[in-house]
Design a protein that fits this description.
CATH topology of the largest domain: Dna Ligase, domain 1
Shape: globular
Low-confidence stretches: 357-365, 381-411
Helix content: 25-40%
CATH superfamily of the largest domain: DNA polymerase, Y-family, little finger domain
CATH architecture of the largest domain: 2-Layer Sandwich
Order of helices and strands: EHEEHHEHEEHHEHEHHHHHEHEEHEHHEH
Structural class: alpha+beta
Number of helices: 17
Distance between the termini: 36 Å
Number of domains: 4
Largest sheet: 5 strands, mixed
Mean pLDDT: 86
Bound molecules: magnesium ion
Length: about 400
Amino acid sequence: MARVRTILHVDLDAFFVSCELLRRPELAGKPLVVAGGHESHPGQSRDPGRSVVAAASYEARSYGVRSALPLARSLALCPELVVLPVEIAEYARISELVFAIFAEYTPLVEPGSLDEAYLDLTGTESLNGGGEEAAREITARLDAELGLPCSVGVATTKTVAKVASDLRKPRGMVVVPPGEEAVFLAPLAVERLPGAGPKTTAKLRLLGIDTMGKLATAPTALLQATLGPNAEALQLRAGGVDPAPVKVPGIPKSVSREETYSQDLNSREDLEARLAVLSAGVGLRLRASSLIAQAVAIKMRFTNFETVTRRRQLPEPTFADQELQAAALELFAEAWTIGRAVRLLGVGAEGLSELRQMSLFERGGERGERLDLALDGLRGRFGGRAISRGTGSLEAPLDWNRDHLRRLTDS
Ligand SMILES: [Mg+2]
């Protein structure tokens, strides 16, 4: 028999909102969302543009406001809503503090997003006590040291741990003892099963399968006929069987930043300024992960939703803002015609490899890279806004669209 695992799924509650409340405690208890690029308050005239909600406080949720809902609709549901701009760099900074605490319990940490992770604590009982004890301690430390509330599920599989962490939000802790996985899942709605999307659950409901228990015991052939080849794995997971390991992420395929504008940009000056900011964001991310890139890509979506991408190999791998930016600007010059309005712009670094510590300083003459590292250090100390290269930076109004949300799901 395989050994019984101890897996935690830790999920911070309304993470972006919690981050904002750390510096805006006077807003605690108010219906509050993080969305778009501007702060606004009840009674002010507001222009929600195309923004969607990136995170909603539990007070806002009681009005029906939730992540991914258009801000315009959210304001209609709750005119008392306080809207704070998305400050993703700040949330990423706080996220690193959260993950530093996780790392004290186990090296086996699989991030799901900025604010959630699986921790495999199997075999660490002598260090951490059992899963439940570790969960209590992590919860207490996130609260005491960072001021952040979270919910935790403790189980023998990732699926069960994730379902458990979601069950009693906020500040929920649910422990599913070994052997009780199927019994725990059985009465829960199929919509709670991770990996069962709306199309899948709609098909299941047409078959009369509305709980995980019914899914676990349905005829497999019927499920395969309806859902296709993944049906069996889904069924097993609904019955509490999930051998998937907690995976520590390796080198990503690419690192990218993109933004959607509430008003399309059509001047070369504005677009180039945003490309510079996006390139710097990609560079910062590469350096933070000790990665170098061999290619740069840009993505542009025009007003008619036509999307073009362009890619270029770099003469030498780099993580320097200026080299990334130079390549992005060249690609832009090739792909853009004067006056054409752009609604989405993105910059990506591809062909990534790990930077060996030594090579950083062995590679002579690379002033740009060293300067960027020095600037990152200062940014870390004084905040991202404090310092930028002398090129200036245009603060264009941004929207947070579903592409962002998919990467940064927050609940
Ligand atoms: Mg969360």
